[in-house]
Each structure stands twice: as C-alpha cells, then as structure tokens.
C-alpha cells in the first residue's frame, strides 16, 4: 500500500469519442475509497489526432509511462489482439479485448464486458425465465451479451442483426462454445418475440445520438423481460415502452459498472466494492 501511495497507480482508456466516458470517475473514486493514489487517463484517438494505426505506439507509451493497465473500446477491441502477449479464455472466445494488464513487460488481454452484463443480469433480473430470448445486435457488444446469457444458462437464443452475415458468425461461434443451447439466426422478429421469454438489446439505438426503439413496441408483452445495454440515457425509449407494457426491465448501467469492477480488480489487485461503485455510478447519472 505504501509503495502505491508513493508511486501512483496509472491506468487509462483507449478509444474514439470517449470524452463523456464515466470509466475514469468510477475507477478513481473506488481507488480513493481504498486509499490508492489512482490516476486514470482518457486516451482519445480524436483528441490526439491519432488513428487505430497508432495503437502500437499508444500501448508502448503507456508502458513507458508506467501504466498498470488499459481499457480498450471502439474501434480497437479487435485490433489490439495481435499486439498482446496472451489472452484470457474469455477474450479468446469472444475475439475482443476491453482490458489489457501491463505487467513485467508483458501485455495480457481480458474481456470484462461479458461478465459485466452477466453480473448485472444476475442481480437485476434474478427470476428471469431462461427458456428463450431474442437478441437484437450481433456486433462487439452483442457477442459479449450472447456469451454472458448463454453462460448463465439460457436454452434458446435467436439473434437478429441488420447484417445477416454478422448474425450468422455470432451464431456459429456461440453454438460451438455452448453446444447444449440452441443458438440461431432469426428471420421473423415478430414470430421470434411471440416465442421468446425475453429480449436483449445490444445496438446503439436509444442513445442520445441514435434515438428510437429497435423493434415495433407492439411486439413487447408484459410477460417479457427486457435488458438494454445503453446507459446514456439510463431509461431508453425501449425501456420506457417496456415498463409501460408491464415488462421486467434491466438498464445498461449495471453492465457499465461491472465491466469496470472487473477491470479495477485486474489493474489494482484489490477487490472492488461493487455496491459502492454502483452507488457512485448512480450519482454520476442522476
């Protein structure tokens, strides 16, 4: 602890358009609560006039500056993989890294996104019917949510995406990892919702920059649970509509917090107080 106080622990986030990120505040507040001198820096590609091609130099500079780790977000979650010395099983299975631990001259990649969604779901919708669900979105976030919900025991997952090839790729990957579950690419959203117990929304629709609802609201029934990954705003148009129709809902705040909980643990070697971090997040988004 004394060494940490004398020499601040440093971490950062690499990505594009990240100035509004709440990740630095969550990490530094929890660090302060644990008596750590914890610095967390935004490494915004746009602000630095950099591109993803500069990722090798950004990683090297972080090492030279004594960083303990880096969070990685769009558009670098896949691009960072060839620059690493090792991967966790989950990062390898997902083909995406959002957390890099820098230690002893080595770079080790992890993925805490899937665990973040899974922990949020487990806590927020503990009584959810896990027989079947529809997922809208098969991008990077969709891969993480699919992995998480299948790891929690979902029996049937039907995936929709504007890019059918991306949906099919997700289905192929998850079917291999979870052979006891039925994972399929959907063709008829209305029919799939009729058969499903729940809905996972894993696209940017509903964010301030991308307003709207990802499916016709009349497809939502009171028996459905609805989980959204968007947390700007916490109550998206989808969740407001779902609540109005009597659905159980889960906002994207928990996923944001719990991925940070996982990264904090990896960077510091300390056990974060998840409840404290959740409460802090609520003050940041109030």
Automatic annotation (TrEMBL):
Q: Matching Gene3D superfamilies, A to Z?
A: Leucine Dehydrogenase, chain A, domain 1, NAD(P)-binding Rossmann-like Domain
Cellular component, GO annotation: cytosol
Q: Where is the Shikimate dehydrogenase substrate binding N-terminal domain?
A: 13-100
A biological process (GO) of this protein is: shikimate metabolic process
Q: Which UniProt keywords apply?
A: Amino-acid biosynthesis, Aromatic amino acid biosynthesis, Oxidoreductase
Signal sequence interval, chain numbering: none
Query: Among its keywords, does the record have Oxidoreductase?
Result: yes
Q: Name one GO molecular function term.
A: shikimate 3-dehydrogenase (NADP+) activity
Could you tell me which pathway this protein works in?
Metabolic intermediate biosynthesis; chorismate biosynthesis; chorismate from D-erythrose 4-phosphate and phosphoenolpyruvate: step 4/7
Q: Which InterPro entries match?
A: Aminoacid_DH-like_N_sf, NAD(P)-bd_dom_sf, Shikimate_DH-bd_N, Shikimate_DH_fam
- Give one Pfam hit by family name: Shikimate_dh_N
The answer to keyword Amino-acid biosynthesis applying to this record is yes
Q: Which PANTHER family match?
A: BIFUNCTIONAL 3-DEHYDROQUINATE DEHYDRATASE_SHIKIMATE DEHYDROGENASE, CHLOROPLASTIC, SHIKIMATE DEHYDROGENASE
Q: Which NCBIfam families match?
A: PRK12549.1 (NF009201)
Protein name as it appears in the record: Shikimate dehydrogenase
């Amino acid at each position: 602890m004394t060494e940490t106080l004398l020499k601040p622990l440093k971490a950062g986030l690499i990505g594009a358009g990240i100035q509004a990120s709440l990740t630095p505040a969550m990490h530094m507040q929890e660090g302060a609560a644990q008596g750590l001198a914890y610095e967390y820096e935004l490494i915004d590609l746009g602000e630095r006039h950099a591109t993803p091609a500069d990722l090798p130099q950004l990683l090297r500079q972080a090492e030279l500056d004594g960083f303990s780790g880096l969070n990685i977000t769009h558009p670098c979650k896949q691009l960072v993989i060839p620059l690493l010395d090792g991967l966790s099983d989950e990062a390898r299975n997902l083909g995406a890294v959002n957390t890099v631990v820098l230690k002893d001259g080595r770079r080790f990649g992890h993925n805490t996104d899937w665990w973040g969604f899974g922990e949020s779901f487990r806590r927020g919708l503990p009584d959810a019917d896990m027989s079947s669900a529809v997922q809208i979105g098969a991008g990077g976030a969709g891969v993480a949510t699919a992995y998480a919900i299948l790891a929690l025991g979902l029996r049937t997952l039907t995936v929709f995406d504007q890019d059918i090839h991306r949906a099919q790729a997700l289905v192929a990957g998850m079917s291999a990892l979870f052979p006891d579950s039925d994972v399929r690419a959907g063709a008829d959203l209305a029919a799939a919702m009729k058969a499903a117990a729940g809905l996972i929304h894993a696209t940017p629709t509903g964010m301030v920059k991308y307003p709207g609802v990802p499916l016709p609201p009349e497809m939502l029934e009171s028996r459905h649970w609805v989980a959204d990954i968007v947390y700007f705003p916490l109550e998206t148009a989808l969740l407001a509509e779902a609540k109005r129709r009597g659905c159980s809902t889960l906002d994207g705040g928990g996923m944001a917090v719990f991925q940070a909980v996982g990264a904090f643990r990896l960077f510091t070697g300390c056990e974060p107080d998840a409840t404290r971090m959740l409460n802090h997040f609520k003050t940041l988004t109030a």
